[in-house]
Protein backbone atom coordinates (compact mmCIF):
# COMPACT_ATOMS: atom_id res chain seq x y z
CA UNK A 1 0.00 0.00 0.00
CA UNK A 2 1.57 3.29 -1.13
CA UNK A 3 2.09 6.00 1.46
CA UNK A 4 0.63 9.47 0.95
CA UNK A 5 3.17 12.27 0.63
CA UNK A 6 2.73 15.02 3.22
CA UNK A 7 3.14 18.61 2.11
CA UNK A 8 6.24 20.33 3.38
CA UNK A 9 6.34 23.67 5.10
CA UNK A 10 7.37 26.37 2.69
CA UNK A 11 9.65 29.30 3.36
CA UNK A 12 8.10 32.11 1.33
CA UNK A 13 10.72 34.20 -0.42
CA UNK A 14 10.44 37.61 -1.99
CA UNK A 15 8.76 39.10 1.07
CA UNK A 16 10.78 41.74 2.87
CA UNK A 17 9.84 42.19 6.52
CA UNK A 18 10.21 45.76 7.69
CA UNK A 19 10.58 47.34 11.08
CA UNK A 20 7.22 47.86 12.68
CA UNK A 21 5.81 44.62 11.30
CA UNK A 22 5.12 45.78 7.76
CA UNK A 23 5.96 43.95 4.57
CA UNK A 24 6.96 45.77 1.43
CA UNK A 25 6.07 43.21 -1.21
CA UNK A 26 2.55 42.12 -2.14
CA UNK A 27 2.17 38.77 -3.88
CA UNK A 28 -0.94 38.02 -5.92
CA UNK A 29 -2.05 34.55 -7.01
CA UNK A 30 1.34 32.94 -6.48
CA UNK A 31 -0.08 29.52 -7.08
CA UNK A 32 -2.61 26.93 -6.01
CA UNK A 33 -6.15 26.26 -7.15
CA UNK A 34 -8.82 27.16 -4.62
CA UNK A 35 -11.29 24.74 -6.28
CA UNK A 36 -9.08 21.67 -5.93
CA UNK A 37 -10.65 19.04 -3.67
CA UNK A 38 -9.04 19.10 -0.23
CA UNK A 39 -7.28 15.99 1.04
CA UNK A 40 -8.21 14.73 4.50
CA UNK A 41 -5.65 12.91 6.62
CA UNK A 42 -5.67 11.11 9.92
CA UNK A 43 -2.18 11.60 11.25
CA UNK A 44 -0.10 13.44 13.79
CA UNK A 45 -1.52 16.89 14.42
CA UNK A 46 0.60 20.02 13.84
CA UNK A 47 2.64 21.13 16.84
CA UNK A 48 0.81 24.47 16.93
CA UNK A 49 -2.18 26.12 15.29
CA UNK A 50 -3.42 29.59 14.45
CA UNK A 51 -6.85 30.93 13.61
CA UNK A 52 -7.96 32.09 10.18
CA UNK A 53 -8.93 35.69 10.82
CA UNK A 54 -10.67 38.39 8.81
CA UNK A 55 -9.45 41.99 9.03
CA UNK A 56 -7.87 44.75 7.00
CA UNK A 57 -4.29 44.02 5.95
CA UNK A 58 -1.98 46.92 5.18
CA UNK A 59 1.46 46.50 3.63
CA UNK A 60 3.73 49.38 4.58
CA UNK A 61 7.18 50.81 4.07
CA UNK A 62 9.09 52.41 6.92
CA UNK A 63 11.16 55.50 6.08
CA UNK A 64 13.33 57.62 8.37
CA UNK A 65 12.10 61.15 8.96
CA UNK A 66 12.89 64.24 11.01
CA UNK A 67 10.48 65.89 13.41
CA UNK A 68 10.80 69.66 13.68
CA UNK A 69 9.20 72.95 12.75
CA UNK A 70 10.05 72.87 9.04
CA UNK A 71 12.52 74.96 7.06
CA UNK A 72 13.05 78.44 8.50
CA UNK A 73 12.15 81.58 6.56
CA UNK A 74 14.40 84.65 6.84
CA UNK A 75 12.84 88.07 7.37
CA UNK A 76 14.86 91.09 6.27
CA UNK A 77 14.06 94.65 7.23
CA UNK A 78 12.89 97.00 4.45
CA UNK A 79 12.72 100.23 6.46
CA UNK A 80 15.47 102.74 7.21
CA UNK A 81 16.28 103.16 10.87
CA UNK A 82 17.43 101.09 13.83
CA UNK A 83 16.13 97.85 15.34
CA UNK A 84 14.76 98.81 18.76
CA UNK A 85 12.92 95.61 19.83
CA UNK A 86 13.05 91.91 18.97
CA UNK A 87 10.92 88.93 20.09
CA UNK A 88 12.26 86.03 22.12
CA UNK A 89 13.31 82.93 20.13
CA UNK A 90 10.62 80.28 20.48
CA UNK A 91 7.81 82.80 20.86
CA UNK A 92 4.71 82.68 18.66
CA UNK A 93 3.52 85.66 16.64
CA UNK A 94 0.10 85.85 14.97
CA UNK A 95 -1.89 88.19 12.75
CA UNK A 96 -1.91 91.75 14.07
CA UNK A 97 1.01 91.13 16.44
CA UNK A 98 4.40 92.87 16.41
CA UNK A 99 7.25 90.93 14.78
CA UNK A 100 9.94 93.52 15.60
CA UNK A 101 10.26 97.31 15.95
CA UNK A 102 12.14 99.87 13.90
CA UNK A 103 12.69 103.27 15.54
CA UNK A 104 10.19 102.05 18.13
CA UNK A 105 7.50 101.56 15.44
CA UNK A 106 6.01 98.03 15.11
CA UNK A 107 6.29 95.84 12.05
CA UNK A 108 2.96 94.01 12.00
CA UNK A 109 2.41 90.36 11.04
CA UNK A 110 -0.29 89.72 8.46
CA UNK A 111 -1.24 86.51 6.66
CA UNK A 112 -0.76 85.88 2.97
CA UNK A 113 1.45 84.35 0.32
CA UNK A 114 2.49 87.54 -1.53
CA UNK A 115 5.45 89.28 0.12
CA UNK A 116 5.56 93.04 0.39
CA UNK A 117 7.40 94.56 -2.56
CA UNK A 118 5.91 98.05 -2.82
CA UNK A 119 4.03 100.73 -0.94
CA UNK A 120 0.28 100.14 -0.80
CA UNK A 121 -1.60 103.42 -1.25
CA UNK A 122 -5.05 104.49 -2.50
CA UNK A 123 -5.45 103.62 -6.16
CA UNK A 124 -3.12 100.61 -6.23
CA UNK A 125 -4.47 97.26 -7.39
CA UNK A 126 -3.33 93.66 -7.23
CA UNK A 127 -3.26 90.45 -5.18
CA UNK A 128 -1.15 92.15 -2.50
CA UNK A 129 -3.93 94.73 -2.03
CA UNK A 130 -6.52 91.96 -1.83
CA UNK A 131 -4.33 90.31 0.81
CA UNK A 132 -4.28 93.55 2.83
CA UNK A 133 -8.07 93.91 2.56
CA UNK A 134 -8.54 90.33 3.74
CA UNK A 135 -6.32 90.94 6.78
CA UNK A 136 -8.07 94.17 7.71
CA UNK A 137 -11.44 92.41 7.66
CA UNK A 138 -10.04 89.45 9.67
CA UNK A 139 -8.84 91.97 12.29
CA UNK A 140 -12.35 93.42 12.53
CA UNK A 141 -12.14 96.47 10.28
CA UNK A 142 -14.50 97.52 7.48
CA UNK A 143 -12.33 96.82 4.42
CA UNK A 144 -13.69 95.86 0.99
CA UNK A 145 -13.33 92.62 -0.93
CA UNK A 146 -11.11 92.48 -3.99
CA UNK A 147 -7.85 93.85 -5.33
CA UNK A 148 -8.63 97.60 -5.23
CA UNK A 149 -7.16 99.94 -2.60
CA UNK A 150 -10.24 102.05 -1.97
CA UNK A 151 -11.18 104.77 0.48
CA UNK A 152 -12.60 102.00 2.69
CA UNK A 153 -9.21 100.28 2.67
CA UNK A 154 -7.51 103.52 3.74
CA UNK A 155 -10.08 104.13 6.51
CA UNK A 156 -9.72 100.58 7.84
CA UNK A 157 -5.93 100.87 7.79
CA UNK A 158 -6.03 104.21 9.65
CA UNK A 159 -8.14 102.56 12.36
CA UNK A 160 -5.57 99.76 12.68
CA UNK A 161 -2.68 102.26 12.72
CA UNK A 162 -4.35 104.23 15.51
CA UNK A 163 -4.73 101.07 17.56
CA UNK A 164 -1.09 100.14 16.90
CA UNK A 165 0.10 103.56 18.02
CA UNK A 166 1.66 104.60 14.72
CA UNK A 167 1.07 107.57 12.44
CA UNK A 168 -2.40 107.29 10.87
CA UNK A 169 -1.55 107.80 7.20
CA UNK A 170 -3.96 105.33 5.62
CA UNK A 171 -0.99 104.00 3.61
CA UNK A 172 1.15 100.91 4.17
CA UNK A 173 4.83 101.50 3.45
CA UNK A 174 6.94 98.64 2.14
CA UNK A 175 8.33 96.95 5.27
CA UNK A 176 5.68 98.08 7.76
CA UNK A 177 4.07 94.63 7.56
CA UNK A 178 5.50 91.13 7.20
CA UNK A 179 3.31 88.52 5.49
CA UNK A 180 3.38 84.88 6.56
CA UNK A 181 1.24 81.85 5.71
CA UNK A 182 -0.11 81.68 9.25
CA UNK A 183 0.97 81.97 12.88
CA UNK A 184 4.76 81.76 13.10
CA UNK A 185 7.36 80.67 15.62
CA UNK A 186 10.50 82.75 16.00
CA UNK A 187 13.32 80.28 15.35
CA UNK A 188 16.40 82.50 15.68
CA UNK A 189 17.48 86.14 15.69
CA UNK A 190 19.76 87.40 12.95
CA UNK A 191 20.08 90.94 14.28
CA UNK A 192 20.47 92.58 17.68
CA UNK A 193 18.82 95.63 19.16
CA UNK A 194 20.75 98.62 17.87
CA UNK A 195 21.57 97.11 14.46
CA UNK A 196 20.48 98.78 11.22
CA UNK A 197 16.96 97.72 10.29
CA UNK A 198 17.75 97.18 6.62
CA UNK A 199 19.48 93.79 7.03
CA UNK A 200 18.51 90.27 8.08
CA UNK A 201 16.37 90.48 11.20
CA UNK A 202 15.21 87.00 12.19
CA UNK A 203 14.21 83.53 11.00
CA UNK A 204 10.81 82.00 11.64
CA UNK A 205 9.11 78.64 11.10
CA UNK A 206 5.64 77.20 11.30
CA UNK A 207 4.18 77.16 14.79
CA UNK A 208 3.16 73.54 14.33
CA UNK A 209 5.64 70.67 14.48
CA UNK A 210 5.83 68.52 11.38
CA UNK A 211 7.83 65.66 9.90
CA UNK A 212 10.00 65.77 6.80
CA UNK A 213 11.02 62.59 5.00
CA UNK A 214 12.78 61.71 1.77
CA UNK A 215 11.76 58.97 -0.67
CA UNK A 216 13.38 57.49 -3.73
CA UNK A 217 11.60 58.41 -6.95
CA UNK A 218 10.46 54.80 -7.34
CA UNK A 219 8.52 55.13 -4.07
CA UNK A 220 6.79 58.38 -5.00
CA UNK A 221 3.46 56.56 -5.27
CA UNK A 222 3.53 55.99 -1.50
CA UNK A 223 3.16 59.70 -0.77
CA UNK A 224 -0.16 61.13 -1.90
CA UNK A 225 -1.17 64.57 -0.70
CA UNK A 226 -3.79 64.16 2.02
CA UNK A 227 -2.93 60.50 2.67
CA UNK A 228 -2.67 59.28 6.26
CA UNK A 229 0.61 57.87 7.55
CA UNK A 230 1.87 56.53 10.84
CA UNK A 231 4.68 58.41 12.62
CA UNK A 232 6.63 56.28 15.09
CA UNK A 233 8.10 58.48 17.83
CA UNK A 234 11.36 57.71 19.69
CA UNK A 235 9.44 56.13 22.60
CA UNK A 236 7.70 53.72 20.20
CA UNK A 237 4.36 55.55 20.22
CA UNK A 238 2.68 55.82 16.82
CA UNK A 239 0.74 58.98 16.00
CA UNK A 240 -1.29 59.79 12.90
CA UNK A 241 0.11 62.18 10.31
CA UNK A 242 -1.19 63.57 7.02
CA UNK A 243 0.90 64.19 3.91
CA UNK A 244 0.75 67.93 3.24
CA UNK A 245 3.45 68.52 0.63
CA UNK A 246 5.14 66.32 -1.98
CA UNK A 247 7.87 67.77 -4.18
CA UNK A 248 10.51 66.30 -6.43
CA UNK A 249 14.02 67.67 -5.96
CA UNK A 250 16.75 67.17 -8.56
CA UNK A 251 20.24 68.15 -7.33
CA UNK A 252 22.50 69.99 -9.78
CA UNK A 253 24.53 67.58 -11.89
CA UNK A 254 27.71 69.50 -11.17
CA UNK A 255 27.23 69.28 -7.41
CA UNK A 256 30.09 66.93 -6.55
CA UNK A 257 29.07 66.84 -2.89
CA UNK A 258 25.88 65.02 -3.92
CA UNK A 259 27.68 62.33 -5.89
CA UNK A 260 28.06 58.89 -4.45
CA UNK A 261 31.12 56.66 -4.57
CA UNK A 262 32.52 55.85 -7.98
CA UNK A 263 31.40 59.17 -9.50
CA UNK A 264 27.70 58.27 -9.52
CA UNK A 265 25.25 60.89 -10.73
CA UNK A 266 23.26 62.61 -7.95
CA UNK A 267 19.84 61.05 -7.50
CA UNK A 268 16.51 62.82 -7.78
CA UNK A 269 14.59 62.54 -4.52
CA UNK A 270 11.03 63.10 -3.39
CA UNK A 271 10.70 65.35 -0.32
CA UNK A 272 7.58 64.84 1.77
CA UNK A 273 6.20 67.01 4.55
CA UNK A 274 3.75 65.53 7.03
CA UNK A 275 1.42 67.42 9.34
CA UNK A 276 0.63 66.05 12.81
CA UNK A 277 -2.99 67.09 13.58
CA UNK A 278 -2.80 66.24 17.28
CA UNK A 279 0.18 68.24 18.53
CA UNK A 280 -0.44 67.14 22.15
CA UNK A 281 1.18 63.82 21.30
CA UNK A 282 4.44 65.68 20.54
CA UNK A 283 4.75 67.44 23.90
CA UNK A 284 8.37 67.67 24.94
CA UNK A 285 9.72 66.91 21.46
CA UNK A 286 11.06 69.87 19.51
CA UNK A 287 13.34 67.84 17.24
CA UNK A 288 13.77 64.09 16.88
CA UNK A 289 14.44 61.31 14.40
CA UNK A 290 11.25 59.33 13.74
CA UNK A 291 10.02 56.60 11.42
CA UNK A 292 7.24 57.23 8.93
CA UNK A 293 5.03 54.30 7.95
CA UNK A 294 3.70 54.75 4.41
CA UNK A 295 0.91 52.38 3.33
CA UNK A 296 1.84 50.69 0.04
CA UNK A 297 -1.20 48.41 -0.34
CA UNK A 298 -4.31 47.45 1.59
CA UNK A 299 -6.70 44.52 1.48
CA UNK A 300 -9.98 45.23 3.25
CA UNK A 301 -11.69 42.54 5.32
CA UNK A 302 -9.19 39.98 4.06
CA UNK A 303 -9.20 36.40 5.31
CA UNK A 304 -5.61 35.68 6.36
CA UNK A 305 -3.25 33.32 8.15
CA UNK A 306 0.33 33.65 9.38
CA UNK A 307 2.83 33.35 6.52
CA UNK A 308 4.34 30.34 8.32
CA UNK A 309 1.03 28.47 7.92
CA UNK A 310 1.66 28.06 4.18
CA UNK A 311 2.80 24.65 2.96
CA UNK A 312 4.04 23.70 -0.48
CA UNK A 313 2.19 21.18 -2.64
CA UNK A 314 5.04 19.14 -4.18
CA UNK A 315 2.89 17.33 -6.75
CA UNK A 316 0.28 19.90 -7.76
CA UNK A 317 2.44 23.00 -7.24
CA UNK A 318 1.26 26.08 -5.41
CA UNK A 319 0.43 26.41 -1.75
CA UNK A 320 -2.04 25.13 0.83
CA UNK A 321 -2.94 25.30 4.50
CA UNK A 322 -3.55 22.41 6.87
CA UNK A 323 -6.95 22.84 8.48
CA UNK A 324 -7.13 21.11 11.86
CA UNK A 325 -10.45 19.37 12.50
CA UNK A 326 -11.92 17.36 15.34
CA UNK A 327 -11.06 13.73 15.87
CA UNK A 328 -7.36 14.21 15.29
CA UNK A 329 -7.69 14.89 11.57
CA UNK A 330 -6.22 17.54 9.28
CA UNK A 331 -7.39 18.69 5.89
CA UNK A 332 -5.00 20.08 3.27
CA UNK A 333 -6.73 22.89 1.40
CA UNK A 334 -5.07 24.52 -1.65
CA UNK A 335 -5.18 28.32 -1.47
CA UNK A 336 -4.73 31.33 -3.68
CA UNK A 337 -2.50 33.98 -2.14
CA UNK A 338 -3.13 37.70 -1.99
CA UNK A 339 -1.45 40.46 -0.02
CA UNK A 340 1.47 39.78 2.32
CA UNK A 341 1.56 42.18 5.30
CA UNK A 342 2.24 42.27 9.02
CA UNK A 343 3.55 38.69 8.97
CA UNK A 344 0.30 37.40 7.49
CA UNK A 345 -0.95 36.51 4.02
CA UNK A 346 -4.37 36.94 2.45
CA UNK A 347 -5.84 33.59 1.33
CA UNK A 348 -8.88 32.21 -0.46
CA UNK A 349 -9.72 28.52 -0.73
CA UNK A 350 -12.66 26.14 -1.03
CA UNK A 351 -14.49 25.72 2.24
CA UNK A 352 -12.25 28.04 4.23
CA UNK A 353 -13.88 30.42 6.66
CA UNK A 354 -13.02 32.73 9.49
CA UNK A 355 -12.34 30.98 12.80
CA UNK A 356 -10.91 27.73 11.41
CA UNK A 357 -7.61 26.53 12.87
CA UNK A 358 -4.60 25.90 10.67
CA UNK A 359 -1.28 24.29 11.48
CA UNK A 360 1.86 26.39 11.96
CA UNK A 361 5.39 25.44 13.03
CA UNK A 362 5.92 25.84 16.74
3D structure, described in words:
The two termini are about 30 Å apart. This protein has helices at about 125-140, 150-165, and strands at about 10, 40, 50, 55-70, 75, 85, 90-95, 100, 105-110, 175-180, 185-190, 200-205, 210-215, 230, 240-250, 270-275, 290-305, 310, 320-325, 330-340, 345-350, 355-360. The strands form 3 sheets. It has a 6-stranded antiparallel beta barrel with strand order 4-13-16-15-14-17. Strands 5-12-11-7 form a 4-stranded antiparallel sheet, with no helix packed on it. The protein has a 4-stranded mixed sheet with strand order 6-8-9-10. Helix 1 packs across helix 2 (about 150-165). It is elongated, with a radius of gyration of 31 Å. It contains 2 helices and 22 strands.
Task: Please specify the SSE layout and strand pairing.
Blueprint: E1 8-9, E2 39-42, E3 48-51, E4 53-68, E5 73-76, E6 83-85, E7 92-93, E8 98-102, E9 105-111, H1 127-138, H2 151-164, E10 177-180, E11 184-189, E12 200-206, E13 210-216, E14 228-232, E15 238-249, E16 269-275, E17 288-306, E18 311-312, E19 319-325, E20 329-341, E21 344-348, E22 357-360
Parallel strand pairs: 9-10
Antiparallel strand pairs: 1-18, 2-20, 3-22, 4-13, 4-17, 5-12, 6-8, 7-11, 8-9, 11-12, 13-16, 14-15, 14-17, 15-16, 17-21, 18-19, 19-20, 19-22, 20-21
Helix pairs in contact: 1-2
Amino acid sequence: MSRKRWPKTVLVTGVVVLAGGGVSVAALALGGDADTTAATHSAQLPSATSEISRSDLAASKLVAGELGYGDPVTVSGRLPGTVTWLPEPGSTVGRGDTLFKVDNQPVTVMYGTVPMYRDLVPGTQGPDVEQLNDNLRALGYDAPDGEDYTARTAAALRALQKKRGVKTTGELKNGQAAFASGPIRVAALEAAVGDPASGRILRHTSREKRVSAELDVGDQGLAKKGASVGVVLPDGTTVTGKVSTVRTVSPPKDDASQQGGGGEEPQTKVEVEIEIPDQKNLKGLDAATVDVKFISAIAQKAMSVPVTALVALPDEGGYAVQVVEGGGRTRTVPVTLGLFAQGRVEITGKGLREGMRVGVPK
